[in-house]
Specification:
Number of domains: 1
Radius of gyration: 22 Å
Distance between the termini: 35 Å
Order of helices and strands: HHHH
Structural class: mainly alpha
């Protein structure tokens, strides 16, 4: 369900204030959102790897061309999985610092 114009303005104002008040926190939130997308990409790469393996093993006695295409799918999906996992690791760096900062803030304001 899309937001109405008033709700969108409120959300934009909250986001603007977050970037003004704590740009590091805003960046950490943005990285967390990206890492959620990365998890979806990693699952898709894993499924493609399994599909490639099934195609390769099911067809290597009948056609080496189809088995080769299955192997190519496996290699490509393994590479995609590795790149996505690396991006996810880079995006999650500093998460301990993020938690510590939130705890310090909680203690100050509480």
């Amino acid at each position: 369900m899309p937001l109405n114009e008033h709700e969108q303005k409120i959300l934009d104002e909250i986001e603007r204030q977050l970037y003004e008040d704590d740009p590091k926190l805003a960046e950490m939130v943005a990285k967390a959102v990206r890492s959620g997308r990365n998890r979806w990409k990693m699952r898709l790469a894993g499924v493609l790897f399994i599909v490639g393996a099934v195609v390769m093993f099911a067809s290597f006695t009948q056609s080496w061309v189809i088995a080769g295409m299955g192997f190519v799918v496996m290699v490509a999906s393994a590479g995609w999985l590795a790149l996505t996992a690396r991006a996810n690791r880079v995006a999650s760096d500093g998460s301990g610092e993020f938690i510590e900062r939130l705890q310090r803030r909680w203690r100050r304001e509480g």
